[in-house]
Amino acid sequence: MYLDSIALTRILPCLAEPGKLIVIGKPNRSLDEVLPYLATLPSVIAYNPDAQTLTFRRPMGFMTLYTDRVYMTQVNNADEGLDLLSALKDAINATWDHRVELVAVTTARRAPRPLDVWSLLPQTNCKQCGEATCMAFAVGLLQHKRTVIECSPLSADDALADRRATLETMF
């Protein structure tokens, strides 16, 4: 077990989503040893090993881990914040327990940008997905408002299977 607890230390209003909160927690020990292993998880959108910061996308909002604190955005209330911190502690411990099966990340990782996603799309601007352009669809994917399967040309064309697989891995 890596962590015994993550204590709720502060609650702030979430500026990105009025009515929601930012929850700040403090782990009972530094996260420096576990961050490179957590960076292997699929929902990571940014990792900076030099600054020792790791950001995950949550279903709603984000979660950023530093060596000595944790920030979670768009939390409904303090009780949900406590539950999320407890679940994070369990996830950190599970990752630490399985670290021998993981390859620690030692290089920076950034979130994909709209052009990164657009370059993997068919770029036909066919509008079958409901968006006016493939770029709009790419932004929708990044915002988790769209799914890869909504791009009919991408799903139908076997020549685009590698691109489809890459996008499915990203999202």
Task: Please tell me about this protein's structure.
It is a single chain. By secondary structure, the protein is of the alpha+beta class. It is built from six helices and six strands, in the order ββαββββααααα. It has helices at 35-38, 78-97, 114-118, 134-142, 152-156, 161-170; strands at residues 6-13, 21-27, 44-48, 53-57, 62-65, 70-75. The protein has a six-stranded antiparallel β-sheet with strand order 1-2-6-5-4-3, with helices on one face. Strand 4 and strand 5 form a beta hairpin. The longest helix has 20 residues, at 78-97. The model has no long low-confidence stretch (mean pLDDT 92).
Instruction: Assess the beta-strand content as a share of residues.
Output: 15-25%
- Count of individual beta strands: 6
Which spans have pLDDT < 50 for at least 5 consecutive residues?
none
Side by side, the strands of the main sheet go 1-2-6-5-4-3
Average pLDDT score: 92
Radius of gyration over all CA atoms, rounded: 18 Å
Count of alpha and pi helical runs: 6
Structural class: alpha+beta
- How far apart the termini lie comes to 30 Å
Spell out the helices and strands N to C.
Answer: EEHEEEEHHHHH
Shape: globular
Largest beta-sheet characterization: 6 strands, antiparallel
Helix content: 25-40%
